[in-house]
Design brief:
This protein has helices spanning 10-14, 18-27, 42-48, 58-65, 80-88, 101-105, 120-130, and strands at 2-8, 31-38, 70-77, 114-116. By secondary structure, it is α+β, with helices and mostly antiparallel strands. Strands 2-3-1-4 form a four-stranded antiparallel sheet. Helix 3 (42-48) packs across helix 4. It is globular, with a radius of gyration of 14 Å. The two termini are 12 Å apart. It binds adenosine-5'-diphosphate and magnesium ion.
């Protein structure tokens, strides 16, 4: 069993895509074991994306991620990290496969609606960044 962190980013919440994303998770049998709405501060977004600190898009990305409410979830299942990344599609929506969340809904390489962890180690860091053990229900 694996766990991953999912975020419906501020653009997804603003555009009314919470239900659309959750519908796709449930349709693909990705079990939601924690969920809440947050509004990250700039500092919280910077800590979350610390791995990208040196990237040219870091400033813009962390401003965007702290620009409005987001929905954070923990998903659990076999190979859930890869399965959820498949549902999301490539980072750049222009390169994302047909039928993926980013292909259908992203408007920009930055405003790409959803986040998903990319490996077990990053998933563990990202889940602990937003949830304590009492908030994870299973
Ligand atoms: P992913 O979210 O697919 O794991 P990354 O971890 O590489 O992608 O990047 C984190 C987030 O930073 C992306 O989801 C996107 O919002 C933003 N981003 C990535 N690359 C760029 C870029 N070249 N220009 C602007 N924003 C970017
Ligand atoms: Mg990433």
């Amino acid at each position: 069993m694996e766990r991953t962190l999912s975020i419906i980013k501020p653009d997804g919440v603003e555009r009314g895509l919470i239900g659309e994303v959750i519908k796709r998770l449930e349709a693909d049998d990705l079990k939601i074991i924690a969920m809440k709405m947050i509004h990250m501060t700039k500092a919280q977004a910077e800590g979350f994306y610390a791995v990208h600190k040196q990237r040219p898009f870091f400033e813009s990305l962390t401003t965007f991620m702290s620009s409005g409410p987001a929905v954070v979830m923990v998903l659990e299942g076999e190979n859930v990290i890869g399965r959820y990344r498949e549902l999301m599609g490539a980072t750049n929506y222009k390169e994302a496969a047909e039928g993926t969340i980013r292909k259908e809904f992203a408007t920009d390489i930055e405003k790409n609606v959803v986040h998903g962890s990319d490996a077990p180690q990053t998933a563990a860091f990202e889940i602990a960044y937003f949830f304590n053990s009492f908030e994870i229900v299973r």
